[in-house]
Please model this.
Amino acid sequence: MSNATLVFQRGVSGVWLGFQTIFMNPYYWFMYVWFRRVRLVTMADLFEDRFGSRGLSRMYAVFQIGVACVFLGSGNFVAYKIASSLVLKPEVSWNAAEQASVAGYAEMKALEKQIPDNTLTIESRQRLDELRDRYARGELHSYITSLPEIPFYLCFTVVVGAYIVLGGMTAAAVNETLQGFLIIVFSIMLIPVGLKFIGGWDQLKHKVSAADLDLFGVSGSPAFIVASLLVGLVQIHGLSHNMGISGSAKDEYAARSGGVGGTYLKRIMIILWAFAGIIAIAMFGKDGLSDPDAVWGTMSKELLGPGFVGLMLAGVIAGTMSTLAAKALAVSSLFVRNVFRDQLKSTAATMSAARWAVIAVLVLGVISGALMDNVTSVVKLILTVNVPFGAAVILIFFWRRLTAGGVWAAVILSALVNLIVPLLANHVESVARSPELTQVVEFKGKPRSVYWEEVVRIDPANPASGVKGRGRFNIEVWTLDKLGIVNAAAMTPAGRETAQFFFDGFFPFVVMLVVSLFTKRADPVLVAQFYGKMKTPVGPSPEADAAEVEATRRNPTRFDGDKLLGAGSSWEFCKWTRQDTWGFLACLATSWAIVGAFVLVLHFAAT
Model:
């Protein structure tokens, strides 16, 4: 549902932050096979199996606990944003501060409407700057919710934790099936009701600009699509649940068809959420809500009756809960198996540790959610947070020369560049207040920070006050600007995002390729066994598969003739089979057919 927010803010081209996954599906036809052939239990096992490194295995497990906190926090945050916009505080109950907040927002929007006509006086311009600064700080709102944030997170988490601890994987699976169905139903429901509200399908072209109906608009340039696809494709390899999904499949075809088929349904849901965002533009106008993150809840409140609003709220909360439960379970298995395996001597101790791990991760998810600020930032964080280990997994599958030292270097440096420095830089006063780093440029009549999410006044009430950066620091674009590769100030906001994604996507590969050439290789016997197993097709039964794996153990080079670049190459790309080729072509055709249908429907909406 975050896709509706992105479309409401950026037009339909904003959907590419999530919809770029449509081009991953042909790749998934191969990827799911690799995770099935490796024949392991958790993703952390992969590093021990390939390098013989318990340290890397544990590092992956600990890192994924942090990643899980981001995913859990985002789920909490999005659920709260929707729920809070459905549970509003009556105007008669507003206190003085709340009244001033809403009045300030209304004044800001009224002043912004005068910008195209150049009717703002100097005093009005100063007042608008002050109000925009307060809005950037989260002080202005178009509505007041009666739902307190932290108690919501706590209640939400207690329910998720209870059914995980009491019911385990079975409870999570049953719950996710039911809640997924609810999400589909309610996502479809908003579209016909919304179209009726705005006066019908033909009203879209009158109430939504052609630019906002252009799938390949500002946020849909080929470069942006490729860049977001790059980071999305890299980070997907590092997700902790990959082994559980693909590795548990009956055979390779089941892993392929089940994974690819399920993800195509998700792509169609993204299109539905995008249309909900388009309808929201028609209903409220561009920038018509003080909190774009609340667009789904606000639409639901406007379009659905009291009973259906309650069901929508229940469906959204339930759908988010199922996602949090699956992630928490995956991380608890990593914690038990790969961090404290040697310390747990009994089944009872293992079960107890797993349950405490679930509780700990859910609590950290509450803290993470409370620290999150807006959906756009959350989506970009999710896209890039797992890139360091995702890149490592890709090279594990493909490059025999990769070393543990290369992985360590790439993970540490990428985490610093991609996560730690950007997220903590605003807490360093000399950095946050640097005149060079707090540059602001005009874009479509609004001030935009070059390197930060936002630049705000140090003293909001003083027009002559200095400024400081707020939110994530785009160290990637700053680095590229310093190297003379880009001119950051001259770029559009989407252009800076594109540069950031390209940097994040390629940086860990460069580090691993260089460092691996100068660090010690893993045991050649271990490496040979790993790649021999990776090229051994999964047998039709456990017994047949075990026999094939044993044959490979005795002769790990028996499938080296399938290598695309020759048996002596350190690159493990293999020749395609008939199933590879036809499956890939079918997926490619399906992906382009879905994109084509999306473009066609948007064309009808705009004409």
